[in-house]
Amino acid sequence: MSVATAAAPATCTLPVLGRDVTVPLVTGGEVTYAALDYAASAPALQRVWDDVAAYAPYYGSVHRGAGYLSQLSTDLFENARRTVAEFLGCRAGDQVVFTRSTTDSLNLLAAALPADCEVFVFETEHHASLLPWRDGRVSYLNAPRTPRQAVATLERALADRAPHGPALVCVTGASNVTGELWPVRELAAAAHAHGARIVLDAAQLAPHHPVDIAELDVDWVAFSGHKLYAPFGSGVLAGRSDWLRAAEPYLAGGGASKTVARRPDGGVDVEWHTTAARHEAGSPNVIGAYAIASACEALTGVGFDALVEREQRLIAQVREGLAAVPEVRVLSLFGDDAPRVGVLSFVVQGWNSSHFAAALSAEYGIGVRDGLFCAHPLVRTLLGGDPQEQGECGAPEAAPGTRALNAIRVSFGAGTPDEHVERFVRAVRELVRGGARWSYRTEDGRCVPDTTVA
Ligand SMILES: Cc1ncc(COP(=O)(O)O)c(C=O)c1O
Questions:
Q1: By CB count within 10 A, which of 39, 64, 72, 128 is most buried?
Q2: Which domain holds residue 135?
Q3: What is the pLDDT confidence band of residue 414, given thresholds at 50, 70 and 90?
Q4: Contact at 8 Å (CB) between 358 and 449?
């Protein structure tokens, strides 16, 4: 593994770190690493890295220091909040809470729900959206096969609920499995028409599309810095403040508390903040928040029109490349014409997906993901039927017709050079036509090159 210092390829929209990293091939030699797993974690933008590096010497405590650097860091943190609010088109009165991730944001919201709040969530969601609602008042909605069916399914479910009580709908903006866009505006309208609120899981949408909370008319938006080219440990929950203000602090501790005093009976009285700080107890991650703000500015600076246009070209290239290989089946909920972001999952007839992904890595230097992508119900639905053995790792000649147990996901974005996508399409074609050139074995449940073979 080595890091060269070549100039950024002119073919990507925004320069990212790692673009010159080379990795060894099991068949010999090295290639530049093709990071095609943006949906899991995107590389840091060069701009984000530069901003963080420029700030690092001035790093100081936030909200808790009289020194110059503490003041500067506090300003930076609060400015980051304003930048994110602007990026998301927040309304007057909305709060931007810095969290650790989308998962953390949705768990925070789940903890802040009014006691008798019902929750509606499609079974197709990422586990981060599917699982935080634990109190038995959650309804899981069946997988729709069209965006229109999604709206109809939600409307039916909401119409059936007892009126008057609070309700929340949780929906993804773009699927982390298929990349398909969900009809967020229509779902928000349906939710509001039935007196429910809606939170948008924008983990996969925000890096690819503008997300405007007011225009979409959603009540909250959650996303993660590490998928938005800012991998410094922060995420965001933004939106209406009333439920957040009324809830117990997500974490109890310093920063969330305004005043604390001993009571004569020996206990303590606490007055909690009613601002975003209420749910940000402990020392804030100023670098994480600043990195997100920097990424928001970089994305806005280059403009989503340009980002979307180029990404759509890459998507078309991948889809055409995969369509030319009859053994490949691309997974889709809403069909070929559905608008989508640069996230595609597929299976290859006769191949164990883990084996295929391992060969892409070991023989082509391409990083993708295989598995069920933390969306088990959706992937199982898309794979179809009862799961059967897919073929062992190292034995790609599984019987034709054998169903896949899991899938392969390729994903890309603003930092992806054309060459990575071209290499991926060529690699799929070559692997399917000619097979793997190396032997693989299972180790700790993963398919890996068998390096004991000469
Ligand atoms: C749609 C979606 N929601 C939520 C998450 C959870 O994000 P995080 O792991 O950053 O909390 C992911 C992560 O892959 C995702 O794809």
A1: 39
A2: 59-301
A3: very high
A4: yes
